Automatic annotation (TrEMBL):
EC category name: lyase
InterPro entries membership: Aminotrans_3 (IPR005814), Aminotrans_3_PPA_site (IPR049704), PyrdxlP-dep_Trfase (IPR015424), PyrdxlP-dep_Trfase_major (IPR015421), PyrdxlP-dep_Trfase_small (IPR015422)
UniProt keywords, alphabetically: Lyase, Pyridoxal phosphate
Assigned EC number: 4.1.1.64
Family membership noted in the UniProt record: Belongs to the class-III pyridoxal-phosphate-dependent aminotransferase family.
Cofactor(s) named in the record: pyridoxal 5'-phosphate
PANTHER family hit by this protein: ALANINE--GLYOXYLATE AMINOTRANSFERASE 2-LIKE, PTHR45688
Official protein name in the record: 2,2-dialkylglycine decarboxylase
SUPFAM superfamilies from the UniProt entry: PLP-dependent transferases
Pfam family, one: Aminotran_3
GO molecular function (one): pyridoxal phosphate binding
Length: 440
């Protein structure tokens, strides 16, 4: 039997619901496809958001420490104003001359290493990864894709087929090879780089023997779905070199770690001292407005552009570009990366102090404001770790603080607040987590 793909979800009949929410769920179930899930044992019902907070119909505020899409906070007034102003003027596509498109493209490219100097816009992270795979396969002449063992890269047919996180019912492509990460396997940091490179080389050899060849190593540079495995710095470099030696391209999926979430860098791959061939963007790029991109080296981007078509009615539309431009302005002007670094350190210090008082925290990993916190009592079986993590998440939801879980066993808390969070928000989170641990 395959594992529950969303353990932190509402199950009908498990909890008693208020009449208002019960009726809304019944209406929802009568018209929406059954693939949808409601998060938390008792679903949350929100009517507005502001900054770090979400509000239910009764005015109760919930502190959002999970939603990395509005990385500048919910309903940022300056971002919303840029969106509305452009929507009130014109919404057009990339087939017309538009200076703001070029202005933003130049500003975005300036945040990358010099080698990455071309950009193509998309609407979502899934679409970005889909396009990056097309480019890599055309340029390399191969089909094989190497991913981490619990990776998630999107929902289109092509990227779902390289996303083992989606579960057994979603069949992986025969050209996909999964590699284990040193962290989840318990490999010491001193051996992590050699372990990862050996995994990559074995995958390359298998793809070659089967006549498939390697087109790309596709990786989320913070390995968020695998449980947020951020260290040791540079452990992926040997694997990157091996893929390039075999003729493949390197695709860094920055949909989650990008746009300053790690604090010390704008892009997660920079932490590892590498420069990919292609970088995929999404989620926080528009602070909630759907816009994404593929940024890459000139040679593969131009080869693809000369020999294949990519046109998208909405990708790079003027409203999305205006919104993304406002986001980038605020990130740079308001020193958001520095805030992410400082608040990440404050949260890390607080979690470490809490771990000394609570045996329920087994490990803490972070880069800036992206955390994986392993939950469970040492010596207990993994099933009990998972149950305890879910209890903590739902106790915090009842307390008005939102997080979720990640990792193959879903026993790691995934903590990724908007990058505008302040000391008081961190302290509220820590106090709620301590109460949840005591109750679990």
């Amino acid at each position: 039997m395959s594992k529950d793909l969303m353990p932190n979800r509402y199950t009908p009949g498990e909890v008693a619901l208020p009449k208002r929410e019960a009726e809304l769920i019944a209406r929802r179930d009568s018209v929406l496809g059954s693939s949808y899930r409601l998060q938390y044992r008792q679903p949350v019902h929100f009517v507005r958001g502001e900054g770090m907070w979400l509000y239910d119909p009764d005015g109760r505020a919930y502190l959002d420490f999970y939603n990395n899409v509005p990385s500048l906070g919910h309903c940022h007034p300056e971002v919303n104003a840029a969106m509305a102003e452009q929507a009130g003027r014109i919404s057009a596509n990339t087939r017309y001359l538009e200076p703001k498109l070029v202005d933003y493209a130049e500003r975005l490219i300036d945040t990358f290493p010099d080698e990455l100097n071309r950009v193509v816009f998309t609407c979502t992270g899934s679409e970005s990864n889909d396009l990056a795979l097309r480019i890599a396969r055309l340029v390399s002449g191969n089909e094989g894709v190497i991913v981490s063992s619990y990776a998630y890269h999107g929902t289109s047919a092509a990227v779902a087929a390289v996303s083992p996180n989606l579960g057994d019912a979603v069949k992986l492509s025969p050209s996909v090879r999964m590699v284990s990460l040193p962290g989840p396997e318990g490999v010491p940091e001193a051996q992590a780089a050699d372990f990862f490179e050996a995994q990559i080389r074995a995958a390359i050899q298998d793809l070659k023997r089967r006549g498939i060849g390697v087109a790309a190593l596709l990786f989320d540079s913070i390995f968020s779905s695998d449980g947020v495995w951020v260290d040791p710095l540079g452990f992926i470099a040997g694997g990157v070199n091996a893929v390039r030696e075999a003729g493949g391209l390197i695709i860094a999926d920055e949909v989650q770690p990008g746009f300053g979430r790690t604090g010390d860098h704008m892009w997660g791959f920079e932490r590892h001292g590498i420069v990919p061939d292609l970088v995929t963007l999404g989620k926080p790029m528009g602070n909630g407005f759907p816009i994404g991109a593929v940024v890459g080296r000139k040679t593969p981007m131009e080869l693809f552009g000369r020999t294949a078509r990519y046109s998208n009615t909405f990708a790079g539309n003027t409203v999305g570009i205006a919104t993304a431009d406002a986001v980038l302005t605020i990130l740079q002007r308001d020193h958001i990366l520095q805030n992410a670094l400082a608040m990440g350190q404050r949260l890390r210090n607080g979690l470490e102090e809490l771990a000394h008082r609570s045996p329920g925290i087994r490990g803490i990993r972070n880069a800036g404001l992206f955390f994986g916190v392993d939950i469970g009592l040492a010596g207990e079986p993994p099933a009990s770790w998972r149950a305890m993590a879910l209890n903590v998440v739902n106790a915090m939801r009842e307390d008005g603080v939102l997080i979720s879980t990640t990792g193959a066993n879903e026993d790691s808390l995934k903590v990724r607040p908007p990058l505008i969070c302040q000391a008081e928000h961190v302290d509220l989170f820590l106090a709620s987590m301590e109460r949840a641990l005591l109750a679990s």
